[in-house]
Amino acid sequence: MRIGFIGLGIMGRPMAKNLLRAGYSLVVYDKTAPVSDVLSLGAEGAASNREVASRCDIIITMLPNSPDVYEAVLGVDGIAFGARDGSILVDMSSIAPAVSRAISGELQTRGVAMLDAPVSGGQPKAVDGTLAIMVGGDPAVFESVRPILEKMGSSVTLIGPVGSGNTAKLANQIIVALNIAAISEAFVLSTRAGLDPEVVFTAIKDGLAGSTVMNVKVPSILDGNFEPGFRIQLHIKDLVNAVDTAHDLGVPVPLTDHVLETLRELEREGLGAADHSAIIRYYEELAHTEVRRRHP
Amino acid sequence: MRIGFIGLGIMGRPMAKNLLRAGYSLVVYDKTAPVSDVLSLGAEGAASNREVASRCDIIITMLPNSPDVYEAVLGVDGIAFGARDGSILVDMSSIAPAVSRAISGELQTRGVAMLDAPVSGGQPKAVDGTLAIMVGGDPAVFESVRPILEKMGSSVTLIGPVGSGNTAKLANQIIVALNIAAISEAFVLSTRAGLDPEVVFTAIKDGLAGSTVMNVKVPSILDGNFEPGFRIQLHIKDLVNAVDTAHDLGVPVPLTDHVLETLRELEREGLGAADHSAIIRYYEELAHTEVRRRHP
């Protein structure tokens, strides 16, 4: 069995390498990024999405957003036009749930099954093979690819039908963004009150305020390090998908709306490629501006 | 050495019992609550705050809010009028940092030292003696009472001068409230999208979205159990102190403002005595109202 792997970015590349190390045969393709390091680990190259699909039983995609996946599957020389009857597309990109369902519907008419299987955990966990993978799709199809997914993630969960993986991912991204905003308001307040943020971190991290976001992000924030990690641009993309989905369903998400605007403001300021923990810089600027207004 | 313990509520009572079990001699007083169970464990009773102070070297207070502490210390028959020169007040209540500093200033003129030492972790950790205790005050005074605090908490941290303990606690309470609101927006959205919230919880709890709030609150939310825990009324009190402190310092806290309004709305609806995890009920009602508006 050969696995196709399309999209060798900051996440896809280490994920593909974990499959190679686990002994799987891979056919890889990326529209723009070089693939030589993956080929040197034993992968075969291909010239298009369509070619990958024609040579593999299972095709994994790891692309930035909904239009990229739509294009890779249904665009010119797309996966849909090369995939054999009975093959499986596992889209591990984080995209809009409605787009997952639409693409799955198109593929179904061609005899191709699809799972949406977005991941959480960022590049370090992609490297370690300890991602959390949230899957939507048919249970039997899920079971058939589960061993492959378990080479990339330590937590692999079938959530429900196609689209459910991405809906769970949106829930995940709402929580991550708001937990970053929460530590931002709290730490800017306590720092402006004269407290040492490192001491505050030590004092509260093991209590009810503790979170993975706090443990992962506060140390780099205190170092003034906003290297991604996870880019503000990508978090904007996820929250736009979240807010659109919420609007479709009639679910008000006022705090998510607010933190999305915060991320957009940071992107306008040129921080789109910074880590999403740079949300705290927005709050630092707000406080700085307010204090200067009061004491001109 | 005898320790005075004033305020035997949902938190103070198990904290006092832990000191008794550790072998300390206690003199206890509560303005309204019965103390017989604490007396039966070996504590002595007293008839006023003043009497407690006159019979003890160290006086601990665990009261609801700033006015209660002010009254217990500086009101009629207050601690200040019974305390001996060289004694120490350890106020473990969660109150406004500015009030901590004001009370400490008054006590200093009478030769009484004060620490503010609010706690986090809720009743279960008060019972287990595993609270997180955030302390403000003089380092030497802190060291002299640290062994006592360690009988009530597993994490005892000196943050800075008097008031710092309560400022750190406000930071803690901002994060807790916003982390609850975050899971509320995410879970109402994913549930309305047809996902099983228990499966979503399993899928995301070990990723970057994971938090102590999620682990502690989601299971009881899924059971429809909003027994406190930590009452909405008390969280309103803490966030009012947080917003007031932020305003004094010129630190905008827009999400904290928003979640405070959410808590106030729930209190208006009669849920003031419910656990703060009932924030999710506000979001459920919002979504319910919106869906009915669209499909009347």
Estimate nothing, just give the exact number of structural domains of chain A. 2
Helical stretch count of chain A?
13
Spatial order of the strands forming the largest sheet of chain A: 3-2-1-4-5-6
Radius of gyration of chain A, whole Å? 21 Å
Shape category of chain A:
elongated
- CATH-derived architecture of the largest domain in chain A: 3-Layer(aba) Sandwich
The low-pLDDT segments of chain A are: none
- The rounded distance between the terminal residues' Cα atoms of chain A is 69 Å
Q: Strand fraction band of chain A?
A: 5-15%
Q: What is the N-to-C succession of helices and strands of chain A? A: EHEHEHEHEHEEHEHEHHHHHH
Secondary-structure-derived class of chain A: alpha/beta
Classify the fold: give the CATH topology of the largest domain in chain A: Rossmann fold
